[in-house]
């Protein structure tokens, strides 16, 4: 496209004139962004077409990753990076008077996800393309992504995230590839030449229109597709006259109901969202996605018995589970297959990732709702259930208990996880501990029935975004020290271990961390007008707000530190800056109350001159991918403090590790695997183990009130939540929090782990006093983080689950 900066400048200025009729002097930052984006988007058009052509000609097996969420964030910087054009564009823009960072800020975050699950999908797409796999994303083009969070008077306020307000330079609307999705109606059964035929009549028809986003691989002309579906009305206005004078209002109603399908992302991170609209969204994704997958497959002119050899459909959590009955429906009703063949094909095509052990997050739909909205699909689910339960009773004639435990439809509820397991050939958890807990507890009967289906694939993160793009200084230092091989083979980061005691290297690591901290400090100063000490420990907890993630334990501990400082103001302390970022689901009142508490504590602490220089607390609003990229490279300490057994994997933990932060954490999720590599020398472990937590749940034996009564530090901070004192302005301000701990017996063991947490934190102060030793630990962390690159994760999915190999796009095919 543009191999050097001069060619870049020429192309850029030409585009500016031809597209916007502007000279460089007249252009705004927004103009520059738009032109740069369009330039990149167009320049990869050929590679995009060639990649697709190569897949077709080579008849490669293709993976379709179905996910209700893709938290992709901004694309400009990453696309430039993967195209190898980052430096050219940066230098060229500088000549034209612009900084690339400023231009990147013009791009709205594509926040089409809630948190970890959606971000995982985005990291996977980057790895699939960079490793040259034929793997695509299939999702919904929500008009509004996850809400934008504002903090007003310490409270979370949600604003709509109108990310498409300015046009999206990356997407390509493909009206010619639209498909029809049908809702409602009645099923009519008839006989046709000895075959039973099912026709759905009086259905409502909706167009699903794909918007394709190119997914550019790293330094290879390999471009996959993220296909995002948008709902559009399909009623023909020219026919309205015939239908009578009320038809216009009917049209308006219909129009609104259609548009709403792809209007909003549900802002629930976990927990069951019982909305009809949500079910509609799920089916919309499954039906549209499958139709387009099968259209591509049809071009091969192969029998459907070969579908599993050419197509893998992966479902990211249970949200797209309806692909199973929908594929059955298409094979039986439209392609003429019998039940057994259709079931065999479906079963060998679909694989499923489980993301949660929280029982409230296991999806269930009222059977009536499914039956009414999707009558034919419901019939198929019923038949799957009938056959599955029948098979069980045949094998275990006196185990009616087992049958009701694992049935897909039970007590008028459709259980999506059960359907996903029964209808797929692979079920994976997302970290070793998580998978074991699935097998041993939550999904035990299924594991006993289908042990060969269960496998673990520990999550990963793309080191291209989270290190090369977010922390380019560190990335360059690594390449200078161990060469650039780690970029393609992230395990080579292990070579850094030999530098861990090298004092010159330590100095460089520390100096890069400091400059990242200064940059974050400048951002905070500009946003909030608060100055923070770049030499303090930057102690960071950024993630969705949830009881099990225990932001509450963190802030209670901060309150305790404040109390300590106020008691003995003259005592020496290692200065700390606590940084929080978290969105709470809008209806999750306890979580919102914790946000308020963090903000109140921040206000008190930051204004208190006596603790100034020792303690600061920040809540950064609107945590998102682009904010994460600013915060994580500046962190010294990563808070991964969930109640053991609750966090399926976590990926935030990996991002921090890769950027040289040390972790204070419980033995939960992927922390367990981090600890296996790092040991006590390089990670700060504390708290209950998952077996202990499980034992408490099973056998009882924990009383939060006992801890409260016995530990005066805890009593003091708990009382400060509800009685007048430094943090509480009116009684009951934080009553909900107080009750959740003392009246509802502290479901997440905040008080139980408090002491262990506080002691470990005190140890961290001591460790920080030895900067060399800290730098050694930091280097060891970075060295082992290659293991968590999503490249490694995707290679394991590719070989163990999908059975796919990299494709070399041949030129001139
Ligand atoms: C990585 C990431 C998450 C997931 O963080 P966890 O700590 O694993 O919960 C959530 N949100 C954003 C924006 C992220 O980048």
UniProtKB/TrEMBL annotation:
InterPro entries named among the record's database cross-references: Glycg_phsphrylas (IPR011833), Glyco_trans_35 (IPR000811), Pyridoxal_P_attach_site (IPR035090)
GO molecular function annotations of the record: glycogen phosphorylase activity; pyridoxal phosphate binding
Role: Phosphorylase is an important allosteric enzyme in carbohydrate metabolism. Enzymes from different sources differ in their regulatory mechanisms and in their natural substrates. However, all known phosphorylases share catalytic and structural properties.
GO BP: any one term: glycogen catabolic process
UniProt source species: Paenibacillus uliginis N3/975
Family according to the record: Belongs to the glycogen phosphorylase family.
EC number: 2.4.1.1
Catalytic reaction(s) noted: [(1->4)-alpha-D-glucosyl](n) + phosphate = [(1->4)-alpha-D-glucosyl](n-1) + alpha-D-glucose 1-phosphate
Enzyme class, first EC level, given as a word: transferase
Cofactors named for this entry: pyridoxal 5'-phosphate
Highest taxon in the source lineage: Bacteria
A Pfam family per the record: Phosphorylase
Residue numbers carrying N6-(pyridoxal phosphate)lysine: 655
Recorded GO CC terms: cytoplasm
Keywords (A to Z) from UniProt: Carbohydrate metabolism, Glycosyltransferase, Pyridoxal phosphate, Transferase
Protein name: Alpha-1,4 glucan phosphorylase
């Amino acid at each position: 496209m543009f191999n050097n900066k001069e060619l870049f400048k020429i192309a850029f200025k030409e585009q500016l004139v031809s597209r916007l009729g502007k000279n460089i002097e007249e252009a705004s930052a927004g103009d520059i962004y738009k032109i740069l984006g369009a330039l990149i988007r167009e320049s990869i058009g050929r590679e995009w077409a060639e990649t697709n052509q190569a897949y077709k000609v080579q008849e490669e097996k293709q993976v379709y990753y179905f996910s209700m969420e893709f938290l992709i964030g901004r694309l400009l910087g990453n696309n430039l990076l993967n195209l190898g054009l980052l430096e050219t564009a940066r230098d060229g823009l500088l000549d034209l008077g612009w900084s690339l960072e400023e231009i990147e800020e013009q791009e709205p975050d594509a926040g089409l996800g809630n948190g970890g699950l959606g971000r995982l999908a985005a990291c996977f797409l980057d790895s699939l393309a960079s490793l040259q796999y034929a793997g695509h994303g299939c999702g919904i083009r929500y008009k509004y992504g996850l809400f934008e969070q504002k903090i007003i008077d310490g409270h979370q306020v949600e604003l709509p995230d109108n990310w498409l307000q300015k046009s999206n330079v990356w997407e390509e609307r493909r009206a010619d590839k639209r498909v029809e999705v049908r809702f409602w109606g009645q099923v009519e059964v008839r006989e046709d030449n000895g075959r039973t035929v099912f026709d759905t009549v009086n259905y409502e028809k909706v167009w699903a229109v794909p918007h394709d986003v190119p997914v550019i691989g790293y330094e290879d002309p390999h471009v996959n597709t993220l296909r995002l579906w948008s709902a559009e009305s399909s009623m023909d206005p020219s026919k309205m006259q015939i239908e009578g004078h009320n038809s216009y209002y009917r049209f308006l109603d219909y129009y609104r109901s259609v548009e709403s399908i792809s209007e909003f992302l549900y802002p629930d991170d976990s927990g069951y969202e019982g909305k009809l609209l949500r079910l509609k969204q799920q089916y919309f994704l499954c039906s549209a996605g499958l139709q387009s997958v099968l259209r591509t497959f049809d071009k091969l002119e192969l029998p459907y018995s070969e579908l599993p050899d050419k197509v893998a459909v992966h479902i990211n959590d249970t949200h797209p589970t309806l692909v199973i009955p929908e594929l059955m429906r298409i094979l039986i009703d439209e392609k003429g297959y019998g039940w057994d063949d259709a079931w065999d094909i479906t079963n060998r095509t679909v694989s499923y990732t489980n993301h949660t052990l929280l029982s409230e997050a296991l999806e269930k739909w009222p059977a009536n709702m499914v039956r009414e909205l999707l009558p034919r699909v419901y019939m198929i689910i019923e038949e799957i259930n009938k056959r599955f339960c029948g098979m069980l009773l045949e094998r275990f004639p006196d185990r009616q208990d087992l049958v009701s435990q694992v049935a897909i439809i039970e007590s008028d509820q459709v259980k999506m996880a059960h359907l996903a397991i029964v209808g797929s050939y692979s079920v994976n958890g997302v970290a070793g501990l998580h998978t074991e807990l699935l097998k041993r507890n939550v999904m035990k009967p299924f594991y006993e029935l289908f042990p060969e289906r269960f496998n673990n694939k520990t999550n990963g993160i793309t080191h291209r975004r989270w290190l090369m793009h977010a922390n380019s200084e560190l990335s360059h230092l690594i390449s200078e020290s161990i060469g650039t091989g780690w970029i393609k083979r992230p395990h080579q980061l292990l070579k850094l271990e030999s530098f861990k005691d090298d004092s010159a290297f330590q100095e460089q690591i520390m100096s890069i961390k400091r400059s990242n901290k200064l940059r974050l400090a400048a951002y905070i100063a500009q946003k909030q007008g608060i100055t923070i000490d770049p030499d303090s420990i930057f102690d960071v907890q950024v993630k969705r707000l949830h009881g099990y993630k225990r932001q509450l334990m963190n802030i209670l501990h901060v309150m305790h530190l404040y109390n300590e400082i106020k008691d003995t103001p003259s005592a020496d302390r290692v200065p700390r800056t606590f940084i929080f970022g978290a969105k709470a689901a809008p209806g999750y009142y306890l979580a919102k109350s914790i946000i308020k508490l963090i903000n109140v504590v921040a206000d008190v602490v930051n204004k208190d001159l006596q603790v100034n220089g020792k303690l600061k607390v920040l809540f950064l609003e609107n945590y998102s991918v682009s904010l994460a990229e600013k915060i994580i490279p500046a962190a010294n300490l990563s808070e991964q403090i969930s109640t053991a057994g609750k966090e399926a994997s976590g990926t935030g933990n990996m991002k921090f590790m890769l950027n040289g932060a040390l972790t204070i954490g419980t033995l939960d999720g992927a922390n367990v695997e981090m600890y296996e590599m790092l040991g006590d020398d390089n990670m700060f472990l504390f708290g209950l183990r998952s077996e202990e937590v499980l034992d408490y749940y099973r056998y009882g034996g924990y009383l939060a009130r006992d801890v409260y009564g016995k530990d005066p530090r805890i009593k003091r901070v708990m009382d400060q939540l509800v009685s007048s004192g430094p943090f509480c302005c009116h009684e009951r301000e934080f009553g909900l929090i107080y009750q959740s701990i003392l009246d509802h017996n502290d479901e997440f063991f905040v008080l139980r782990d408090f002491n262990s947490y506080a002691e470990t934190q005190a140890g961290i102060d001591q460790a920080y006093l030895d900067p060399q030793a800290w730098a050694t630990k930091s280097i060891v962390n970075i060295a082992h983080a290659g293991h968590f690159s999503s490249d490694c994760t995707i290679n394991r999915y590719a070989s163990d689950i999908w059975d796919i190999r990299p494709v070399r796009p041949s030129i001139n095919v």
